[in-house]
Amino acid sequence: MTATLVKEASPPAPSHPDRARRRRLRRRGRIVAVLFVLPALLLLGALVVYPVLFSVGRSLFDASGTRFVGGENYTEMFRDPATLKAVRNTAIWVVIAPTLLTGLGLILAVLVEKVRWATAFKLLLFMPMAVSFLAAGIIFRLAYDDDPDKGVLNAAAVTVHDAFKGSSSYPTARAREAVGGGGGGAGPSLTKEADGAYTTGADLSPGTVTALGLVGVAPKDLPDDAAPAHPAATRQEAGADEVRGVVYLDFTPGGGGEPGVVDRQESGLPGMTVEAVRDGRTVASTTTAADGSFRFTGLDGGSYAVKLPAANFAPPYDGISWLGPTLVTPAIIGSYLWIWTGFAMVLIGAGLSALPRDALEAARMDGANEWQIFRRITVPLLAPVLTVVFVTLVINVMKVFDLVYIIAPGPVQEDATVLATQMWLVSFGGGNDQGMGSALGVLLLLLVVPAMVFNVRRFRRSQR
């Protein structure tokens, strides 16, 4: 009797129609899910899967695409000096740019926490991310221009250089050829030396007055304080231990005048360094006045030569050749840093804001200074975020194209080329070898995939 009651109280087993209904619902759910995902799958296949498969197949054919060559493009790729240079430059990018960006982002993120206007500062640093690589490339192409009147960086470099070292006022000045010497204001012949200096013969003795004429200076390029040289040339009287003279522009505006003679309308050349030389050794040095006059005093008896050092005629400092073969890659990396520093700072700052503050406060209470806290607590706790930022930037720099193509001038394009630009140049930029270009694209894909897999695994571990 008891067994019968227990059996009657047990719940009935689910009927077969209920199981069939649940199967139909699951099947319908899968169909609905596939319908929702199908547009994304079609786009992914058309924009990613198909181009990858087509590039792999195309890399096995020659430039015309009609003859199967197998792995010949891959072997030829590593025998091509331009491709090897692209691989080397890509390696430089991968090592330097992500490291600098991650370091700058970390430092700025830590410092910004202590700034009152942190949000405005972050916004200011993040703004370059809104600029396209094309616009950024044009901006930095102008900033790196070799002409100091156009390139802001060279303008700054020239300003700093001239502030500390100065520059020549007469880079185009030269001596007039075949000018004989004589009295009455005529000057001796000037001989150009190997280093660019000009010197007279060693036949000037104390008590002599001489005139040194130069040409090649446009009147409009004369210093504002330049005065006529004629009075100084005609009225000077040298003492027994002196050599006096005048350095002047041997050119009369409007024509006329006598070569080698200081005419009334000819200007002195102020600020010119003049040396007295005896037996190959400089014994005195001075600078010309506004009218070009100079004077050496306290000279012993004997013969002297007057020398105009090469520094008077040195070409002006034009700055740094940012886009030359040596510096073009570091210069382009600098523009990349300008764009992406805000990105690294914001991501690292987000990780920094999630750090447990009790650990930092405990370290401060134990007597640790800010550097010790940063090195022993902040950086180890931020290691996962720093790794993600670094690997993301590695993936990004492997694909850099716009900045290199726009900033590097044509003559140094090969010196700055990376795999992405080399792939385009070989395929479309004159090489017209899409077989080789496809092989370069496959190589670039193979280099990027490990970093992408590493990043995906890091994201999955962080979610767990």
What order do the helices and strands come in, and which of them pair?
Blueprint: H1 2-9, H2 16-58, H3 72-77, H4 81-112, H5 118-126, H6 133-143, H7 152-165, E1 174-175, E2 191-192, E3 198-199, E4 208-215, H8 230-235, E5 243-249, E6 273-278, E7 281-287, E8 293-296, E9 305-308, H9 328-353, H10 357-365, H11 370-381, H12 383-398, H13 402-407, H14 413-416, H15 419-427, H16 434-463
Parallel strand pairs: 4-5
Antiparallel strand pairs: 1-4, 2-3, 3-9, 5-8, 6-7, 6-9
Helix pairs in contact: 2-16, 4-9, 4-12, 5-9, 10-11, 12-16, 15-16
Commentary on this structure:
The strands form two sheets. The protein has a five-stranded antiparallel β-sheet, with no helix packed on it. The two termini are 55 Å apart. With 464 residues, it is of the alpha+beta class. The model is unreliable at 1-7 and 179-185 (pLDDT under 50). It has two domains: 72-157 and 322-463, MetI-like fold (Orthogonal Bundle); 174-313, Immunoglobulin-like. α12 (383-398) runs antiparallel to α16. α8 (230-235) links the parallel β4 and β5. It has helices at 2-9, 16-58, 72-77, 81-112, 118-126, 133-143, 152-165, 230-235, 328-353, 357-365, 370-381, 383-398, 402-407, 413-416, 419-427, 434-463, and strands at residues 174-175, 191-192, 198-199, 208-215, 243-249, 273-278, 281-287, 293-296, 305-308. Helix content is 52%, strand content 9%. It is elongated, with a radius of gyration of 39 Å.
